[in-house]
Design goal:
The complex is a heterodimer of chains A (359) and B (223). Chain A has 2 domains: 198 residues, Peroxisomal Thiolase, Chain A, domain 1 (3-Layer(aba) Sandwich); 151 residues, Peroxisomal Thiolase, Chain A, domain 1, CATH 3.40.47. Chain A is 35% helix and 23% strand. In chain A, the strands form 4 sheets. Chain A has a 5-stranded mixed β-sheet with strand order 1-8-6-4-5, sandwiched between helices. In chain A, helix 2 crosses helix 5. Chain A is globular. With 223 residues, chain B is of the alpha+beta class. Chain B has an 8-stranded mixed β-sheet, with helices on both faces. In chain B, helix 1 packs parallel to helix 4 and helix 2 packs across helix 3. Chain B is globular. Classes of the chains: A alpha/beta (359), B alpha+beta (223).
């Protein structure tokens, strides 16, 4: 069994998992305007604090997991990020006009490993919105195989114009708010956030019991519902459970027209017996791209620990094409299995299954 | 773990980047130089084999497609306008995986990672779980060669696309080499020389055995 031994989170809602979830519960959501576009920004941060922020969140997760220096030294490091060092490159582009300073991704894991004293295996995984979800799956599989014993999985996505302008060029950004599965949804609000999760064999309330990664070549920008159904089915199979055992689905729910339809259709197909409550979390912190895998996982874990399941916000009108109404009321946290979906550009789709054992 | 096939495309760039698209059996309208270089390498490795649909694909590249990133930065920071949508899309690392999967009709796991040594252990686990795995290491050159020399501090400018096809068994006795004694060393000393280059040179050579000792990863290869 692979347990989630500790975690930490920094979002626009707060600088810890606890403060983020407290703000989430109060719906204290504060998107701001960056370059004329709505964006969820972490307060008081600068581009040159890139490594400091990663150090802060990883050290918090290690403290939360209460692991000793020898375990830290042997631990493996998995970093999931879509933009990697783009924020640092963009800072140089703006300051000196240098259009490409240095994209060398390994530097991120080298610097963080050195700061933390990690000497084990390290990798950067960069698969757009699924990056850190895939990092969790890969870490779990490597622990299961016996190749490593413990892993620190980090999701990092900090403000960069390339992602913001790129999404704008596809007309995927809303000027209002994210309304996943709503009839009047009109796009995404991006955000920055980072998080870290420690996986290992020390028992805790939460375990990562299954996961799957698949590629969908139907379209480069939009998933097909049959392929989304397939990745969810594989994750459940990997966890050795049936759809009826799922207590809640944390949906990918980007509030873009096509993606929500595909995800809703896939959920309706796979959970035809009974659809569990559906939770979109992006309206609280924005779409945090490659980091949304660990960010949304930690938001859910901390909410469960606080005894509740958040409600969906901004949803007003049911879309008959989606035929899915998200969870509109806060619910009491229940022990059991939770499915988390993450779907990315390039047809990279992932689903995770976690188990929550209520103490 | 068995190596079934490999490719080792190395192009010395002297004046300009080569045309890769014309050499591809399946061409894609919006693919850029990095994607074409990737496809060229994987095409030469796989050749006419039909891969199992659940084949895992790993692309390792620390700098990704620098030329398209420069184009997008130019749009945003110099021209102060939105990038072309498909230029932006090509900077996203999962897009390169999409083209490989589309080219070979794959449905399994596809991951973009930073380097060969980080792909290998993950691939090792997939192979252990019965999967066929393709691993590629792709290095693109900046088309402005002066800028490339300045950024990388090198006179010799080389583009490369190196691939291996791995499988758990050697049922048809067609494997070209066996990987054994795979292990992770507890060291992240980045000053150790990466030797993916020597690994692929070994595969091309007449030598019968090779000891790989990269950044935290070690294994033996027997032909």
């Amino acid at each position: 069994m692979i347990y989630i031994e500790g975690y930490a989170l920094i979002t626009s809602l707060g600088k810890s998992a606890k403060t983020s979830v407290s703000a989430l519960r109060k719906e204290n959501i504060k998107p701001i305007f960056m370059d004329g576009t709505k964006y969820y920004k972490i307060s008081d941060t600068k581009p040159l604090e890139y490594y400091d922020q990663i150090e802060q969140v990883t050290k918090s997760a290690i403290t939360h997991a209460n692991i000793n220096p020898k375990e830290i030294e042997n631990m493996a490091l998995f970093i999931g990020t879509s933009s990697a060092k783009l924020p640092l490159n963009e800072y140089c582009a703006q300051e000196s006009g240098e259009l490409l300073k240095d994209l060398y991704m390994s530097e991120v894991s080298e610097i963080i490993a050195k700061k933390l004293g990690i000497k084990g295996f390290r990798t950067i995984i960069s698969t757009a919105c699924t990056s850190s979800a895939n990092a969790l799956i890969q870490a779990k599989e490597m622990i299961d195989s016996g190749l490593i014993k413990k892993a620190l999985v980090v999701g990092v996505e900090l403000y960069n114009q390339l992602t913001l302008k790129g999404f704008d060029s596809f007309m995927l950004l809303t000027k209002t708010e994210m309304k996943p599965f709503d009839r009047d949804r009109d796009g995404i609000v991006l955000g920055e956030a980072l998080s870290a999760v420690v996986l290992g064999h020390n028992p805790s309330q939460f375990s990562l019991v299954g996961g799957a990664v698949t590629v969908d070549t139907f379209s480069i920008t939009a998933p097909h519902h049959n392929n989304l159904k397939k990745v969810m089915s594989q994750a459940l199979k990997n966890a050795n459970i049936q759809p009826r055992e799922i207590e809640l689905i944390k949906a990918h729910a980007t509030a873009s027209i096509q993606n929500d339809i595909s995800e809703a259709k896939a959920i309706n197909l796979l959970f035809s017996e009974k659809i569990p409550p559906i939770l979109p979390l992006k309206p609280y912190i924005g779409h945090t791209m490659g980091a949304c895998g660990t960010n949304e996982l930690v938001l859910l874990l901390e909410s469960l620990k606080e005894g509740f399941i958040p409600k969906a916000i901004h949803f007003k009108n049911r879309d008959e094409e989606c035929a899915l109404t998200p969870n509109l009321e806060e619910l009491e946290a229940k022990k059991g299995y939770y499915l988390l979906n993450y779907f990315g550009f390039g047809g990279n789709n992932s689903s995770l299954v976690i188990h929550y054992k209520r103490v | 773990m068995y190596i079934y096939a490999f490719s080792n495309i190395i192009e010395r760039v002297e004046e300009s980047l080569s045309d890769k698209k014309s050499k591809l059996t399946q061409k894609f309208n919006r693919s850029d130089n990095f994607i074409n270089l990737t496809l060229l390498g994987v095409q030469q490795c796989v050749q006419k084999r039909v891969l199992p649909k659940q084949t895992s694909v790993y692309i390792a590249s620390n700098n990704g497609n620098m030329n398209t990133t420069i184009k997008v930065f130019d749009s945003i920071f110099i021209q102060k306008k939105l990038p072309m949508p498909f230029n932006f899309l090509n900077t996203v690392n999962s897009i390169k995986l999409f083209y490989v999967a589309k080219n070979f009709d794959l449905e399994g796991k596809t991951l973009f990672v930073d380097r060969f040594e980080s792909a290998l252990p993950q691939a090792f686990v997939d192979v252990k779980n019965g999967k066929t795995v393709l691993i590629g290491v792709v290095t693109e050159v900046i088309s402005d060669l002066e800028l490339h020399r300045e950024r990388f501090g090198t006179e010799e400018i080389i583009e490369s696309s190196r691939w291996i096809l791995l499988s758990a068994t050697n049922k048809d006795k067609k494997a070209i080499a066996k990987i054994e004694n795979f292990s992770l060393e507890c060291s992240s000393d980045s000053s150790k020389p990466h030797n993916e280059e020597s690994f692929f040179s070994f595969l091309e050579s007449d030598e019968l055995s090779f000891a790989f000792r990269g950044d935290g990863v070690s294994f033996g290869v027997m032909k």
